Amino acid sequence: MQRLFYPDTLGTAHCYLLHPPGGVVLGDFLSIGVEHRSGRALLTTPSAGRFYTGGGFAETQQQRVELNVVSGTLEWLPQETILFSGAQAHLDTSIELAKGAKLAFWDVVVLGRPACSDRFVEGFCRQRLRIRREGRMLLQDQLRLEAGDRLCQSRQGLFGASTAGLAVFTETASEALINDWLSCENTAQHTGTFSLTQRGELLLARYLGEDAQCCRAAFSRLWQALNSECYGHCPAEPRIWHT
Prior knowledge:
Number of helices: 3
Number of strands: 14
Strand content: 35-45%
Structural class: alpha/beta
Shape: globular
Radius of gyration: 18 Å
């Protein structure tokens, strides 16, 4: 973990989590645990996470993230996770929120390496996200796919797209903000589609397309717009995103 930065007037602590090996190979189990007790903290990564190719082995690769927000605001905004063709990935995220705790979260998964035309032609992905407030389930989201299967190809699934993103905020957005963001992102020259849904106390944004950087940039604009509307303050993006 690098030293903390405090780039805005709200006093948000920016924390960069480093993974020296640079990726997850078969047989690896990467566990990340965070407990946030007060104030505001933003956690991100200096680069994309990578799940490397299987090489014919039967072992799986696992990543478990457990976030416990006791008080204050935790913003978990990592860069994308890239699954190389042949990866056999299990991605599990569990988030516990105490009463009054706030969360900003996103997760962007890329199948293969579309920028260099390396498609996800073998392997699988098992992904699960659970968010609870004082033990009560607010959201449970799961993705289970095999390379090239019906879920990857059908309109009810990924429809051939390589990149899927989900952002979750414990805020209630105005109808004007929702309409403005959707109109802006879906009429821009993006290779993908965005949706935005208010579900109880959670605001859910989704992306399906071919460009992880476009997805994260749009999620960042939504994050900033929500903070401006709810708190009258536009947060500073982590400097590492622009290096």
